[in-house]
Request: fold
Amino acid sequence: MLKIRIVRTPQEMAELRPVWESLVNGGRATIFQDFQWNLLAMTMFGGREEPWVICAEGSYGVAVIPAAVRLSDGSLRLLGEELFDYRGFLHQGDDAVLISALAELASVERSLEVVALREPERKPWFEGLSLVPFSAAPQVRRADASADVLAVRHGRLGRNLRRLKRLGFQMQAYRGDNPCLLRAIYERKAAQDQRSLFHDPLRVEFLVGAARLRHHTFEVFTLESGPHMGAALVTLRDGDLRRFYTGWFDPGLEKFSPAISLIYQVTYQSLADGLDCDYMTGEQPYKMRLATASERLYRLCATPQQLAGLKRPPLALLAR
Reply:
């Protein structure tokens, strides 16, 4: 027998923690499926997203769909507002339990959109909904290049760092328990780009709060000369991966390429430390310059009718 729970409040979400964390620990989730971060998102963005988290439990598996109704357009999304690069369903066991959890969302009578699912999250029967390529995540993998090989391939970036060093800039590293630094980086990031998500102070405060919860996960690298910050890179440590989340640089130093030079140096250090690097969503030229691989990302969409159609016996879907 399948037990379905619908979680609508942070208090109900807290009760879901043991199930959620067992799925995270046993699956292929990313840091964006961290329970504490999702609970924080549910709490902080409650004025923008109405939680509608589905938990399905049966003898043949468990699934959690961390859904929310976005109040601006009424669509169904997954928790995290605009700040989670990778979305995913938490699932263990038979696909039928995941199908049942998704079908439960039909009662909300909203269209579901999930951006972005990674290749490991892809299921053959997703094609029965609407699964289309969205973007890709460039990466640098230890299997493709060692730190020394990277240095040989990108000697010019090494020279840029030496030029910046002669100007007095040194690379510094910080953890997430530095809210003043994070706020300064996102304030400067917003000033540099009119389309930046970080003109919104609530998003900045969410990241400050997430960093406080997981200060060892947040790793911030900067190029500094005294009080002058020339570039900054906010990364997320996720198992044996370092995910490159946010970058910023001082436009006055543009001729020295401080941003890509800092990315190069952190990539070099990551490889030397036995970590792969994920440059995350988007195939911008500066990422592709260093990348040795790329992971496909997808957009999953489903109408209420398509979700309701999942209630029929799942074998037909699983056979597709």
